[in-house]
Structures are given as structure tokens and as C-alpha cells.
Design goal:
By secondary structure, the chain is α/β, with parallel strands linked by helices. Helix content is 48%, strand content 18%.
Length: 353
């Protein structure tokens, strides 16, 4: 199992800090650096900067990856161009993850001016066309969402970029096994990882593919601080938008996306109680403090640094690439460095020993 580091926008890093943390990741023995993408800094540019900085420590640079970029922000051709350029620049050390984002929510589609679409059909169209383009193929394709006529990527040689699919539910996991180079998981416990592998293998079998070639990558969030209560609150706040959603969900929305994912793991009653707190006007901190340790430690770690490596290793069982997704307990660079050091690969290997 490879161990990467995940740094996101919540850390409020400057460009100089991004570069220094990339060098530190290489010094600590991480093999890759990953980022999610929203509507802020362009993730492809960020990966390029991080890779270049890591070359100050290791000549070939660390692998970089996006896990994941919502496809509503770019066309398949734009993904292929940007991902292909990154692959050419880094000598094949770039991994591109794509996902649905919140396209299953009507309000998200309204924000982006999108018609109602099938998220599964959309991701099938994107996987087929993007993977074909970065393989040097000419795209002649008509799907439910994507249509391309005679499009070919003008990068020689073909920049064969691995394309991973952000997947949580059974159908997306099967689709990743059928069509993607890997699956990007999130907020999973070891049982959910094993279940995900079963669904991926089902998709691979349907397509006649070797499931061993389909990578499973996951963010595992870690927050460390000597004050455990401070670490718990910061970690819980990072969990809220996923487990609960930005707004109290409808009955249907509770079955979809991350909310459906957490409910499949057995937290339906707890999340319903937290929804009642939100509906009653409780503060964000009060809701965060009400998250149970059972839920939080089921999918990540908060606490003192000495326990982080062991917990991370146990949560990562079954993955090909386990990513330490940093949650800073305090708004300081030192809080980020504390997580990176607490979960450095040598400590995880020793703890898993």
C-alpha cells in the first residue's frame, strides 16, 4: 500500500506554503500529494506547482493527483487537455479523478444551469470519452450527456493519464470497475472498503477486465492536537458537510451521495438527531460537538499525535493508495505539519507491523 498526503483549501495555504509542504511530504516519505477541487484555485495548476516543488527533494518529483474534480466544471475535452498536459509535464506522475459533485441535487443543477441528468449516465459518458482521448483515440461518441464528433487530442505521444472515478454507491463502484482506472473512495471504514472492492470487481467482471488493475484510493482524515477536545471539534466540523449535507436533506436526498453513504454505514438515527438540532437553530459548534466518537472514529482519526499512525493503518486496510487528508486542529501551519509528521509512512508501516 502506498501512502499519500491530501491538502485542501480549508488549510488556507499560501503558494509558498504549498511548495514547502510539498518538499516536506517528499522528505517524510509520502509517495504522492492529492487535492480535491471546488470552484477555487484550479487543481491542475496546483498539482503542477506541488510536483515542481517536490523535485527539490526527489529528482523525479512526487506523484500528484486530483480526487476528485466535479465534471460539471469542465467538458471531456477540457479534462483530457489539462490532464494530458500534466501527464506530459510530470513524466506520467499525475492521476486525474472525476466525479459527479452535487449534480443529483436540483439546486446544484440550477446553480450551474444544467438540465436534469442521470449522474450514472453522465459519468459513463465522461469516462468513455476522457479515457479515449488521453489514450490517443479519436472520439466519435454520442451518449445521454456527451456528444463528440471526430475529436482527437493534439498531444504527442498520447498522454495516457489514469482516470479515476469518485464512487460511493454500488452503481458508481461497479461503473469504476467497468470503465475507470481506479476508484476514489471517501469516508469509509474497512468494512466499507471491502464492500466497495466487491462492487468494483463485479463491474470488472462484467467488462472482462482484471480487477487487480483497478486501484482503490481513499482520503482518510486525520486531526491531531494535544487537546483532544480541540481536535475533535475541528474534525467534526470537517465531517458535517459530508455526513449531513449543507442543508437538511429531503427523504430522497438522504439516499444519495455522502448522506446515503453514511446511512449505509449505520448512522441513520444519529444523523436524524443532528438534523433536528439544525432545524431547531442550534449553532454549528453545538452540532459539531454532538457528533459521536463512534461515528467520527469509524472513518478517520482525531486525538493526540501518538495514536494517529496506528489508527490510520487500521482504517486503510484493503486500499492501494491511502491518503492522509489533513484536518488542521488550529489555523496554523504547525497544525498541518503535525498531522503530516504523525502519519508519515515509516510510522504507519511500523504501527501496522
Amino acid at each position: 500500500m502506498e501512502i499519500g498526503i491530501g491538502l485542501d483549501w480549508s488549510l488556507n495555504l499560501t503558494w509558498d506554503e504549498q511548495a514547502e509542504l510539498s518538499r516536506e511530504a517528499a522528505r517524510l516519505g509520502y509517495t504522492s500529494i492529492w487535492t480535491p477541487e471546488g470552484t477555487g484555485i484550479d487543481a491542475f495548476h496546483l498539482c503542477s506547482q506541488r510536483w515542481a516543488a517536490s523535485r527539490d527533494v526527489t529528482p523525479e518529483g512526487l506523484d500528484t493527483g486530483i480526487a476528485v474534480s466535479p465534471v460539471m466544471y469542465r467538458s471531456p475535452v477540457a479534462f483530457a487537455m489539462s490532464g494530458g498536459t500534466m501527464s506530459q509535464l510530470t513524466g506520467g506522475r499525475f492521476h486525474m479523478g472525476i466525479g459527479t459533485g452535487g449534480v443529483y441535487r436540483p439546486r446544484t443543477r440550477r446553480t450551474m444551469g444544467m438540465p436534469r441528468v442521470s449522474a450514472l449516465a453522465m459519468m459513463r459518458d465522461y469516462l468513455i470519452t476522457v479515457r479515449g482521448l488521453v489514450a490517443g483515440e479519436q472520439a466519435d461518441y454520442q451518449g445521454d450527456v456527451v456528444t463528440l464528433r471526430g475529436v482527437k487530442l493534439g498531444i504527442e505521444p498520447a498522454p495516457r493519464t489514469p482516470v479515476y472515478l469518485g464512487a460511493l454507491g454500488p452503481e458508481m463502484l461497479r461503473l469504476s470497475g467497468e470503465l475507470a482506472d481506479g476508484a476514489c473512495l471517501n469516508w469509509c471504514n474497512p468494512e466499507q472498503i471491502a464492500w466497495s472492492r466487491e462492487k468494483i470487481n463485479e463491474g470488472a467482471a462484467k467488462a472482462g477486465r482484471d480487477p487487480a488493475g483497478i486501484k482503490m484510493v481513499e482520503y482518510i482524515r486525520v486531526c491531531v492536537d494535544d487537546d483532544v477536545d480541540t481536535a475533535k471539534r475541528a474534525y467534526a466540523r470537517s465531517t458535517m458537510g459530508y455526513a449531513l449535507g449543507q442543508e437538511v436533506p429531503t427523504t430522497k436526498e438522504r439516499t444519495l451521495g455522502y448522506r446515503g453513504h453514511f446511512e449505509r454505514m449505520g448512522f441513520t438515527e444519529e444523523l436524524a438527531e443532528l438534523d433536528r438540532m439544525r432545524s431547531a437553530g442550534e449553532s454549528r459548534d453545538d452540532v459539531a460537538d454532538a457528533f459521536s466518537s463512534d461515528l467520527l472514529l469509524n472513518v478517520g482519526y482525531y486525538g493526540q499525535a501518538k495514536g494517529a499512525a496506528d489508527a490510520f493503518g487500521k482504517l486503510a486496510k484493503g486500499l492501494d493508495v491511502a491518503i492522509v487528508r489533513v484536518v488542521a486542529a488550529r489555523p496554523t501551519l504547525e497544525s498541518t505539519l503535525a498531522v503530516m509528521r504523525a502519519c508519515r509512512p515509516s510510522l504507519v508501516t511500523e504501527a501496522s507491523g
